[in-house]
Structures are given as structure tokens and as C-alpha cells.
Design brief:
Blueprint (H helix, E strand, L loop, with lengths): L1 H111 L1
Length: 113
């Protein structure tokens, strides 16, 4: 008799447990369906996205090479400017400074007399 009561209590507990878990199982089923839909959408769109990423990468690589070339041109221009313009201007400025010093000494000698 005790085992019959235990069996009845067990089946009642099992029935309550199934009753309580049934909505959870249904929600899990819906969630899995949504996950499957999402995965199929991602699988459908992923090749196009990867192609776009590859196109962007190629474009960035091209732009990077152009920027590098432009920077090299700017460095070369700066070196040319320094060699062809800056240095001669500094030489002229030094020569004018020396000429002014000489003229200054000459005028100082004339004033002294």
C-alpha cells in the first residue's frame, strides 16, 4: 500500500512538473525557430557582406597606397625646397648680413674721423 501511495505521489508530482515545464518548452521551441530564421538570414546575406568587406579592403588599400605616394611626393618637394630655395636664401641673407657689417664698420670709421 505504501508503494502505491508513493507511486501516486510520484505521478502527481510528475504531472505538475510537466504542466509547469510545458510553457517553458513551448517558449524554447519558439526561440529555436527564431534562431534558425536568423541563421538562415545570416547565411543568405553573409556572402554579400563578405564581398562588400573585401571591396572596402581593396579600396582602403588603394587609398593607402595613394596617400603613401602623396606623402613621398611631399617629402621630396620639401627636400627640393630646402635644397633649391631655402639654402640659397640663407646664403643671400648671410651675405647681406656680412655686407651690412662691413658697411657698418666703414661708416663707423668715417664717423670716427
Amino acid at each position: 500500500m505504501a508503494w502505491e501511495i508513493a507511486l501516486i505521489v510520484f505521478f502527481l508530482s510528475l504531472t505538475v512538473l510537466v504542466y509547469l515545464l510545458f510553457p517553458v518548452v513551448l517558449k524554447l521551441k519558439d526561440t529555436l525557430q527564431n534562431v534558425n530564421k536568423t541563421i538562415s538570414i545570416v547565411n543568405k546575406d553573409l556572402p554579400e557582406l563578405m564581398e562588400n568587406v573585401q571591396d572596402i579592403s581593396v579600396t582602403l588599400n588603394t587609398v593607402s597606397k595613394k596617400v603613401e605616394s602623396t606623402v613621398d611626393d611631399v617629402v621630396e618637394l620639401e627636400q627640393l625646397f630646402s635644397k633649391e630655395i631655402k639654402q640659397p636664401l640663407q646664403n643671400i641673407a648671410n651675405s647681406i648680413g656680412m655686407l651690412l657689417q662691413i658697411l657698418n664698420k666703414l661708416f663707423d670709421k668715417k664717423r670716427s674721423k
